[in-house]
Amino acid sequence: MLEIFITLIQHMGLFLIIAYLASKTPIFKPFIEQSTRLPHKILFCIFFSIFCILATELGNRIPLKDQLGETQFISENANSKNNNENIAIANTRDMGAIVGGLLGGPIVGFFIGLVGGIHRYAIGGWTAIPCAFNTLLAGCVAGLFSYYLRRAHRSDLIFSPLVAGGLTFCLQCIGKLVVLFAARPSGDIVLFAPPSEETINLLKEITLPMVFINSFGSAIFISLIVDRKREYDKLASNLSSQALRIAERSVGILTKSMTTKTGEMLAKIIQEETDIGAVVITDTEKIIATIGKGAEHHEPGLKIASEEVECAISQNKVIFINGVEIQYDCPYSNDCPFGSCLIIPLHENQKVVATLLLFENKNKLFLNINRSLGEGIARLLSNQLLNNRYNQQQTLLVQSELKLLQAQVNPHFLFNALNTISAVMRKNGDSARDLLLHLSSFMRKNLKRDSSATSLSEELEQLDSYLVIEKARYGDNLDIVIDIDKSLTACEIPSFTLLPIVENAIKHGTSQSLNKGQIIIGLFQKKECIYLTVEDNAGLYQSTNDSKGLGINIVNKRIQNEYGERYGVDIAYKAKLFTRVTITLPLVRQEHDQYINC
Amino acid sequence: MISTLIVDDEQSAREELTELLKKHQDISVVGQCANAVDAMEVIVKLKPDLIFLDIEMPRISGMEMLAMIDPDYAVDIVFVTAYDNFALEAFEKNVADYVLKPIEEQRLDLCLDKIRRHSKSNEFSKLAPSKLKHLPCFSGKILKVVAPNDVDYVYSDLSGIHIVTADEVVHSHLSLKIMEEKTDLIRCHRQYLINPNSIAEIDVFDAGNGEITTQRQKKVPISRRYLRPLKEFLGFVS
Predict the structure, then answer these.
(1) Do A173 and A90 belong together in one domain?
(2) Per the domain annotation, does A6 fall within a domain?
(3) Contact check, Cβ <8 Å, B59/A473
(4) Would you give the DSSP letter of residue B197?
(5) Which of A135, A369, A519, B4 is deepest in the core (most CB within 10 A)?
(6) Residue range B131-144, pLDDT digits in tens
(7) Chain A closest-CA separation from residue B53 CA (Å)
(8) What is the CATH number of the domain that holds B78?
């Protein structure tokens, strides 16, 4: 029995060494993946079938013993077939069927079991049929078990050495029982007859070694796979965490366009994270930034001189100089320490705007990981550049819309105001002077405006100047009521929000009314929102008229751009009675003003 | 003396112009109006020789008001505007004069000189739109603007011109002639204009005259003279 033990351990060791070596090659990759595709399954079938056949062939052939325990000597001249008739084989075949079934599923398990079984049967011997059957059974059961685990979403258990060992143990025990009750030295199959003496003798010898070695072997095989899997995962997670770190650190750097400063920051981040020799960033003409020891001669500002970089820019493709077949030939200095280089174009809207150059020293190999990482970073940066461009255009759009709003107002308002003032001057110099001051204050604030937010109090101040002038213009024909919650005046509001609405109310509302006009301006808070209302009593709003709605549309768009769809401008109106415009804004108090209030 | 009417929706602008005109002995300001409806009333009543007309006015612009002035009535019009490129271009091509707000004294003097030298003309009517979009009306002291499409029929009697719409009867200073020319209303009687869209039935009498029943069951007479053109318009005559 000890002899069998040792032989089996040797076999197991041999198989595990083969498996270990295989695990170092790409062939092994399917083994560590949980999803098994058809090519993988075919690979499993072939691999484990060979395993089974080898295990049987290498197996410890045990001659039949008679009742006395004496070995029946085989006659010298007996042919090999007869030779085999009296033997049983202690082997590690089932291990292959079980591991294969577990990894590949029921069909793979069945196939491996079948191949292993047929092969075993073909060898012959008095235990051939039960043993072949056992292998088939082991493959099928392991396959079904694996299928069951997958269905139960416990596929992690497939890769548990304990489960594999336990399963093998059970299947081996069942197999030995089958042999016990079915095998006859004559080679016949007699079911459910009391076991023969020879069988018991045989099982005494082989049961223990086979059950334990097979169970142990399966467990080790699976744990080998698990280890490889962990290693792969770790590598992948390392790579992705590195990429993520770069992504995280570089976010926001490119919010402005690529300049020497932003380029330098980026290059620094990439160099630190990848630990690569040097990182150089160029635009389409010259070097923008250089980071890395020995790379100083790639001075920012120098014109691009390398053919490869020019090629990468003009053809928009990644160029890799591996440093083995082709050496990087530095155009700037003969003492350049770098041998390999990866040139990645960065594009914005498919147009190359910059390149990222990763250098590695002559005595170092350019890691493949860094290569794929570099390409990933380039994609990330390109996206950032695109996003940046989009943002710039968005800002431009907002600014130009704002200018449009301002331009719409100014000429009419200015001429009317001057006209009013010149008329008032004749009657009352002081009030004319007052009006002029209001006008100048209004104009100054108008000039100062940009697209940023302002405080409500500031907006109201300007509105006040505006209303004083309009009131002087329309006299008794215009009545203005202001109903404002004073505690809210520190709130933030996008600049140029309220004024266009009030202007609209006067221009298209009260000034078009044949009777006396009234405008009510309200400000109140409800929950986390503030509401600004501008109501006129003309009720002349026409939703179909686009040009009149332009100002309101722009205000609405700007608010929604800034704060989201929940906010914006609503219009309620009843013909000939009123038009009410409501601006809804989030309650944002300006910190600066709060500080002053304290 | 040149009787002058100032039409401007801003009180200060009216006062300013009145003040400037005081220096000219031959100008007498007979009225100031804040909108086209009031202005039409004064024009009909006082028939001024000269009108200073603002272009930007509530509901009915100065341009549209031009179309409402009886073409037989000769008057000088000076447009007053603060800022309107479009209008300025129109003026350059035509005889009608204009001054810009705030009004310069020299420019006003020049303008008045021109008016004194030339006889009154109706050239400005070239500027006027050919169709009216609004009819200036009043009801008591309330001023109203009625769209021509909303009119059922219009009639005149000794007290003036009356416009009948779906829900009210209002009055206007526009003549039937102007309304006939510049809207889609058609003449059915010397004293009546009818909106063809509001005709429900036409009764033709033996005497050669007839009567219209409107969609709202109002009766409008048709005189003999207008029966045939009306029937032709509606497609009844072969």
Answers:
(1) yes
(2) yes
(3) no
(4) G
(5) A135
(6) 888 999 998 888 88
(7) 15
(8) 3.40.50.2300
Separation in Å, CA of B60 to nearest CA in chain A: 8
Residue span of the structural domain in which B168 resides: 135-234
Q: CA A388, A401, A418: angle at the middle one, nearest 5?
A: 145
pTM: 0.53
> Which amino acid, residue A231?
E
- Domain ranges, residue A579: 478-597
- What type of residue sits at position A482? I
> What is Dmax (Cα atoms) for chain B?
68
Query: What pLDDT is stored for residue B97 in this prediction?
Result: 77
pLDDT at A531: 92
Per-residue pLDDT, A593: 45
Among B70, B103, B126, residue at a domain's last position = B126
Chain A positions touching B10 (Cβ under 8 A) are 416, 419-420, 423, 473-475
In 3D space, the residue among A287, A279, A292, A298 whose CA is nearest the CA of residue A377 turns out to be A279
> Which one is predicted more confidently, A269 or A183?
A269
Nearest chain A residue (CA) to B58: A512
Q: What is the mean pLDDT of residues A91-101?
A: 85
- The three-class DSSP label of residue A238 is helix
Q: Choose the closest CB to A511 out of B58, B82, B142.
A: B58
Final residue in a domain of this structure, among B69, B97, B126: B126
How high does pLDDT run on average in chain B? 86
Alpha-carbon distance of B208 to B192, in angstroms, equals 17
B104 and B162 fall within a common domain: no
Kindly give, in sequence order, each residue whose CB lies less than 8 Å from that of residue A449, ignoring residues fewer than 6 positions away: A402, A406, A495, A496
Let me know whether A273 and A303 are in one domain. Answer: yes
Kindly state whether residues B152 and B227 are assigned to the same domain: yes
The answer to whether the CB of B136 falls within 8 A of the CB of B174 is: yes
A-chain CB neighbours of B9 within 8 Å are: 474, 477, 511
Residues B139 and B162 occupy one common structural domain:
yes
| ipTM of predicted assembly, 2 dp | 0.75
Is B146 in the same domain as B116? no
Between CA A70 and CA A506 the distance in angstroms is 121
- Residues β-bridged to residue B137: B144
Instruction: Please give the Cα distance from B28 to A344 (Å, whole number).
Output: 85
Contact A423, B101 (CB under 8 A): no
> For chain A, percent helix, then strand, then coil, each to nearest 5?
60, 15, 25
If you search the block for the tokens 């759009």, which residue do you land on? Answer: A397
**Stretch among A97-111, A309-323, A554-568, B84-98 having the lowest mean pLDDT:** B84-98
Residue A431 domain-assigned (yes or no): no
- Helices marked H in A359-455 — which ranges? 368-427, 429-448
Together in a domain, A188 and A282: no
A565-590 pLDDT, tens digit each: 889 899 888 888 889 999 999 988 76
CATH number at residue A232: 1.10.1760
Note whether B102 and B176 are same-domain residues: no
Instruction: Give the tens place of pLDDT for each residue, A102-125.
Output: 888 888 889 999 998 888 888 877
Tell me the sheet residues that pair with A2.
Answer: none
Q: Does residue A548 form part of some domain?
A: yes
Helices (H) and strands (E) in chain B, counts: 7, 15
Contact A286, A257 (CB under 8 A): no
B121 and B6 share a domain?
yes
CA–CA gap between residue B21 and residue A501 (Å, rounded):
38
Q: What is the CATH number of the domain that holds A355?
A: 3.30.450.40
CA pseudo-torsion sign B226, B232, B235, B236: positive
Q: Which residues of A touch B102 (CB under 8 A)?
A: 418-419, 422-423
Q: Which comes out higher in pLDDT, residue A188 or A147?
A: A147
For residue A549, the model assigns a pLDDT of 61
Q: Is the pLDDT of residue A293 over 90?
A: no
Question: Do B85 and B107 belong to one domain?
Answer: yes
Q: Looking at the 3D structure of chain A, how many domains does it have?
A: 3
Angle at B161 between CA B155 and CA B166, to 5 degrees: 60
